[in-house]
Amino acid sequence: MKTHLPNLLTFGNLSLGILAIISVFSEDYTLSSILIILAAFMDRFDGQLARKLDVESEIGKQLDSLSDLISFGVAPAILIWSYSLQTFGFIGIIIIVIFAISGAYRLAKFNVTDFAGTFSGIPITLAGGIVALVTLYSINYYMHDYVVLIIVPLLSYSMVSKKIHLKKK
């Protein structure tokens, strides 16, 4: 049973990402944002639990990446497009597609790279969480759509940048 506990958290992360997408369809942007943030907390603990229980596996690593792509790549992209970037038409679509592609590339690169303690780019979890927080801020206060038009590409670049180095936990 202990070997499956981290994967259960990963499935929880994925489930919350799917529910976040469904919430966007209902135009419940606040709930969608909160679900993405909750998914980030689940994602934070699945890897830690796997290491603590000494049950890390390749399938767990791949499952985590696929779940992260949905919860922190696709769900935030759909959320921010529906809430803000659709006003920019085709440019808004390009921006969210690049965001999801950058996240997918970052995850794939992370999975195949042997590195000694540091890795380039911000995690997709952080980028997706920031998009959710930007949306929450925009709902409760006000953030001009042009600010979002700048933030999302910067997050995309930050995920794949070789100039940003983070230490592995």
From TrEMBL:
<dbReference type="GO" id="GO:0008654">
    <property type="term" value="P:phospholipid biosynthetic process"/>
</dbReference>
<dbReference type="InterPro" id="IPR048254">
    <property type="entry name" value="CDP_ALCOHOL_P_TRANSF_CS"/>
</dbReference>
<dbReference type="GO" id="GO:0012505">
    <property type="term" value="C:endomembrane system"/>
</dbReference>
<dbReference type="InterPro" id="IPR043130">
    <property type="entry name" value="CDP-OH_PTrfase_TM_dom"/>
</dbReference>
<keyword id="KW-0594">Phospholipid biosynthesis</keyword>
<feature type="transmembrane region" description="Helical">
    <location>
        <begin position="143"/>
        <end position="160"/>
    </location>
</feature>
<keyword id="KW-0444">Lipid biosynthesis</keyword>
<dbReference type="InterPro" id="IPR004533">
    <property type="entry name" value="CDP-diaglyc--ser_O-PTrfase"/>
</dbReference>
<dbReference type="Pfam" id="PF01066">
    <property type="entry name" value="CDP-OH_P_transf"/>
</dbReference>
<keyword id="KW-0472">Membrane</keyword>
<dbReference type="GO" id="GO:0003882">
    <property type="term" value="F:CDP-diacylglycerol-serine O-phosphatidyltransferase activity"/>
</dbReference>
<dbReference type="GO" id="GO:0016020">
    <property type="term" value="C:membrane"/>
</dbReference>
<comment type="similarity">
    <text>Belongs to the CDP-alcohol phosphatidyltransferase class-I family.</text>
</comment>
<dbReference type="InterPro" id="IPR000462">
    <property type="entry name" value="CDP-OH_P_trans"/>
</dbReference>
<protein>
    <recommendedName>
        <fullName>CDP-diacylglycerol--serine O-phosphatidyltransferase</fullName>
        <ecNumber>2.7.8.8</ecNumber>
    </recommendedName>
</protein>
<feature type="transmembrane region" description="Helical">
    <location>
        <begin position="115"/>
        <end position="137"/>
    </location>
</feature>
<keyword id="KW-1208">Phospholipid metabolism</keyword>
<feature type="transmembrane region" description="Helical">
    <location>
        <begin position="88"/>
        <end position="108"/>
    </location>
</feature>
<keyword id="KW-0443">Lipid metabolism</keyword>
<keyword id="KW-0812">Transmembrane</keyword>
<keyword id="KW-1133">Transmembrane helix</keyword>
<dbReference type="InterPro" id="IPR050324">
    <property type="entry name" value="CDP-alcohol_PTase-I"/>
</dbReference>
<keyword id="KW-0808">Transferase</keyword>
